[in-house]
Every structure is written in C-alpha cells, then in structure tokens.
Amino acid sequence: MTPVHELSIAVAVVEQVEEALRGQGSAVESLTLRIGELAGVVPEALDFSFGLATEGTALAGARLLIETVEARARCDGCGREAPTGMPPVLWCADCGSTLTLLGGRELEIVRVVVADGSPDGGTTHRGPRAAPATGRTDDQETSHVPHR
Predict the structure, then answer these.
(1) Are 61 and 54 within 8 A, CB to CB?
(2) What is the pLDDT of residues 39-88, one digit of tens each?
(3) Quick one: average pLDDT of 87-115?
(4) Known binder of ligand: residue 144?
(5) Which residues contact 125 (CB under 8 A, 6 or more apart)?
(6) Residue 102: which residues within 8 A CB-CB, separation 6 or more?
(7) Residue 75 is assigned to a ligand binding site
(8) Strand segments (E) across 76-147
(9) Helix, strand, or coil here: 4?
(10) Are 114 and 20 spatial neighbours (Cβ–Cβ below 8 Å)?
(11) Which of 68, 92, 111, 118 lies 20 to 30 Å from 86 when distance is taken between CA atoms?
(12) Any known ligand binding at 125?
C-alpha cells in the first residue's frame, strides 16, 4: 500500500518539474529534494511513490536523491543553538526557556539534472534552485544524503 501523503507530494513535485521543463523535451536523469526531519515525510515511502508518480512523464526512470536536513532550534532565553532531536525537544537543556525552530521542516526541490542531448551524454543542471548550499555538485548513488 502506498502512503497517500507521500504520493501526493511525489505527484506535486513531478508536476512542478514538468511545468518548469515544459517545451524543452528534456528527459530528467535525477532530482534532488531537501527534506527536513520534521517535515513528516517518510523518505522510503516518498522514494516508492516517486516511482509511481513519474510513470509516463519526463521524469520516468529518474533517480530521486534526498538530502535530509537536521532540525535545529535557538533558545529564546540564552541564544544557544542546537539540534532538536527526534522527537523534537523544544525547550533549552541549559536554561529551560522555549526554543524557536530554525530548520527541519524543509520540503524543497533543490536540483534537477536533465540530459542535454549532447553526443558525450553530458548533463545540464536546471531547476527552480541552484546547487545545494552544501557545495556538493556530484550525485550520490545513495538515495538519502544527510544535509547538516
């Protein structure tokens, strides 16, 4: 059984990428998503749902790469920044004040790699965002790449 939540996310991502590539006739080789650990997305379920959602589209056969973003927060009292953990702890271990969430709820399309049709099989990077802030420009064989 496919989780409905992840399937709806996968369908929305496919629709956004197809809209961005409309009229270019490009096949997508890989797609990188940045997903916060508090986004409520199960990466394995999204990976499975992505395969279903891409059937018959320009993304059919594309690799889905996922960068997981650690949830981090800042203390409203002492200013200490730290990971929240899972499940999240939203009070300061040092002073007991509440924490303001800084990151961990992301759900972003980071990069789309399309075949450019050149004889050497090169690729062109296109998409709504530039390369990830990690400075990484290579695709990894693993589906889940931690982003910290």
Answers:
(1) yes
(2) 999 999 999 999 999 999 999 999 999 999 999 999 999 999 999 998 99
(3) 94
(4) no
(5) 111, 112, 113, 131
(6) 72, 73, 74, 81
(7) yes
(8) 81-83, 99-103, 107-115, 123-126, 144-147
(9) helix
(10) no
(11) 111
(12) no
Mean pLDDT score, 105-130: 64
Beta strands in the chain (DSSP E): 28-36, 63-69, 72-75, 81-83, 99-103, 107-115, 123-126, 144-147
- Provide the 3-class DSSP secondary structure of residue 1: coil
Token output for 93: 């271990």
CA-based radius of gyration for the chain: 18
Task: Assign 27 to helix, strand or coil.
Answer: coil
Q: Per this entry, what is the length of the chain?
A: 148
Q: Is 147 annotated as a binding residue?
A: no
Greater confidence, 51 or 148? Answer: 51
